[in-house]
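#struct-help
A.M.: can someone run this one for me? Single chain, 416 residues.
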Amino acid sequence: MGLVYIDDIKPGMKLEKDLFCPNGRFLLGAESVFEVKHIKIARSWGITEAYIEGTDKKSLDSAAEEEFSVETLATAELVLSQNYKHTYMTVDVMQEIYRLNKLTVASEIEKGGFTRADIEQSSIMEDFPAPKAIDKSNVSAAWVVEKEVGLASFPDIYYKINDVLNSTRSSASHMADVVEKDTSLSAKLLKIVNSAFYSFPSRIDSIRRAITIIGTKELATLAIGISAIEAFKGIPSELTNMKVFWKHSIACGVFARLLGTYVEGVSTERLFVSGLLHDIGRLVIFRALPEHSAYSLHLSIKESKSLSCIENDIFGFEHADVGSTLMEKWKFPSRLVRNVRFHHADAAVDTESSIINIADCLAIAFGSPVSKSTVVPSINPKVWESLGLSASVIQPIVNQSERQIEEIEDVFFSVN
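D.P.: on it. Structure tokens below:
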């Protein structure tokens, strides 16, 4: 008998213990044999693990690795040895992330994604001259935001949406009137609503219908996130690869939303937008201090340390401080600001910021192809424990994320 994660349960397996939903509702009794319909029902009720006769997670994990050659697994471990160099692996969730990451990388290797020679070559880094040290007494997150006056103004649509939300006389119809006048925003919102992000059974063909189904505040929150991205279209390409930047941000938003579905009392739309905007402080620093920003990225890769730690050493603050300061200037909702400000916190500040912290780790590990610059951060045990989740939620989340990330990327990167 052993505990088995939901994604490893197959038809024909027999329950050792009664199976209950997270809310305590009885689902299946001991000795029941799983059928396809039982697995689907279990997933729909948020069940992520069950006790199964004759097997356990350890034996199934070993079987999953046996599908790859010894050489492939060794190469995957070589890749991840650099990525996880400074990652604390004592927490069960980090062990599960590493296990799944190893299988993902092994699959990429077998598909010809990269070879051992590519990996060894990528470890060779050119020297990067250090810029003049910053006078930390004169530079702060607020100074960086004020320096970038071009980012001080936010798209007008945001303020119009906010006026509707804050007016006691406004209705869902008023919100629809405002959003529909921005055709680009409306098109993006409808693409998101009709994607795997929501998986509604029928197509939603109007903003009014979308508001009716997901709610006025929820749709307004999504609109805020989309509008914020528009504000950063002027970032020069030589400072950073904007497509790579937004790919990571989208992945973080998707992972945050998926994690939020397992936690009571959170807004999944707010989590998505918080993830989407969690790194906007990096873009502000890119513009204000380009040489120092580039150097901080170089050191992060060279020393296999998180960018936030390197930024604190160089600037005396990090991009989460800058991003949240900018969002305050834009008068964003306080919960969004808080989620961005504390997404690198070493302790559990609150539930939503803890979710963004973990989603950032998942986005780094799984959101884009692994490379020498992939430095997977540690998840603090207290942050993970604060959510009250089992590590068994990670595999379903990772499996669901791929399609959602692809479809949200299409929303933002599509030329139409």
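A.M.: thanks! The chain is about 60% helix and 5% strand.
D.P.: also worth noting: Residues 141-154+231-413 form a domain with the Hypothetical protein af1432 fold (CATH 1.10.3210.10).
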